[in-house]
Every structure is written in structure tokens, then in C-alpha cells.
Design a protein that fits this description.
With about 270 residues, this protein is α+β, with helices and mostly antiparallel strands. The protein has helices at about 10-20, 40-45, 85-90, 115-130, 145-150, 155-165, 170-175, 190-200, 220-240, 250-260, and strands spanning about 30-35, 55, 70, 90-95, 100-105, 135-140, 180, 205, 210-215. It has 2 domains: about 1-115, L-fuculose-1-phosphate Aldolase (3-Layer(aba) Sandwich), CATH 3.40.225.10; about 115-270, L-fuculose-1-phosphate Aldolase.
Length: about 270
Amino acid sequence: MKDIFTAPFVKEMEATTANMYHLGWDERNGGNISYMLDEKEVSEYLDLDNVIRTIPTGFNAKELIGKIFIVTGTGKYFKNVESDPETNLGIIRIASDGETAELLWGYKDGGKFTSELPAHLMSHTERLKIDPENRIVMHCHPDYTLALTQAHEMTERAITRTLWQVMTESIVVFPEGVGVLPWMICGTNDIGAATAEKMKQYRLVIWTLHGIYGCGKDMDEAFGLIETVEKAAKMYLLASHLPQINRITDEQLRAVAERFGVNYRKDFLDI
């Protein structure tokens, strides 16, 4: 059996969490990632019949029974994942009751998965209905995105238009726009259900005064979506106090979207 510490999915989690920490997106133990794995690939590294222990998930994920995920741990710092993945990450499988996670590897200090796991599982469930290739749900606290929620009208149309209008690639990267939730208590099934509902339309959901959720078929897609929102939010905030001499018009946005063949939210434009 291959060494689990060399597994591509472990190395990818190490690299991504380190990158997000150094970008300042995941201070302290802020943020979490869940990555749905291929059972055949995991079986090359782990005995899937060896369940270390079981952990209640706090949510019935019946549509994900048998699915395997690598998930960041609760209370764990992203900066420590690379040096000690076995403590800060865990590989879990959703048990046959849908309400229990079977620990296959990790959380070696007796810990468990992020408190946001129900929100992740709910989002995975909804995104898989739309995109069967979806594998990643990622949550973090990017500086400029978070600042934007303090100084901008928090509606999906308003936020999306601003992000589209300040940077040409935005409408190409997230043509469906960005979902928005009002401030809610984190770590609850309520915010998880609200996020999953938005995931029926969007791959990105901003939590007002908290952070952002992104998802995708791989780490690059989920990370890239958040990265593009963060860059656009930064451009807006850097120039928002200055006279707005130039901004991408709705006609130009439509032209870009049609040039790249993306299915954009036409109702978000004034055309």
C-alpha cells in the first residue's frame, strides 16, 4: 500500500491551505476545506475496512452515503497543515445512516472535522445535482471581500455588477454572479442550509461580515473563483473614494460574455 503522506490529495490540501494562510485568507483557525475523493484512489493508500472511530456529523447527508472526503479539522490552523497533516486533516466516509462519519485517517490528536461540515455537505449535495464533477467546497475570509460587505449594498445583483464592472475577466470567471447571505451565526445548520440553497444558482456565496464559500470540480476552480472575487473587490475598494471616470459598461460586459461564450445573468445588466 502506498504512503498516505505522498497521496496527491494530501499534498494538494497541504499546498492549498498553506497558500491561503499566507494570503491572509485564513487567520488563526478561520476557514475550512472539504474535498470529495475517488474511492479507488484512496484505496491505494488506506485500508477502507479499517475505521478508526465514528463521529456524528450533526446532519443527515443521506445523498452522500459512502462518499469519502478529506476535511480540515475543527480548531486547526491552516499554517500547521503542511507540517502535520495527520493532526490537522482527516479522511472521512459518510456512513450508511447518513448521520455518522467514519474516520479512515487523520485527526490523530482525537479531534474531528470542521464545525462547518454540515454546511459543506449540504453544499456538496446541491452542487452535485448541478455539476456531477463538483469535488471542492472551500470557505475563507479574504480581506477585501470581507471589507466590501461593510461598505456595499448587499444584494446579489448589486455585488455582482460591481465585481463585473471593475475587472474585465470577472464576468467570464463567474458569469452566473455571486450569491449573498445576510449576517448569520456560523457553524449552524441554518447557515448551511441557506448557503446550499444559494449553491443551486451560484458557485460563490458571500457571507456578510464573515467571508466567502466557493466550490468547483477541483481545487484550482474553487480557489480561482474566490481569488477573482477578492481581486475585483480590492480594485473596487482601492478606487471607490476616487472619481469614477472609467468603468466597464453593461454593453461592454455583454460583449465580453458573448465573446467568451459564457451563460451570464442577463437580468443583472441594464440592457
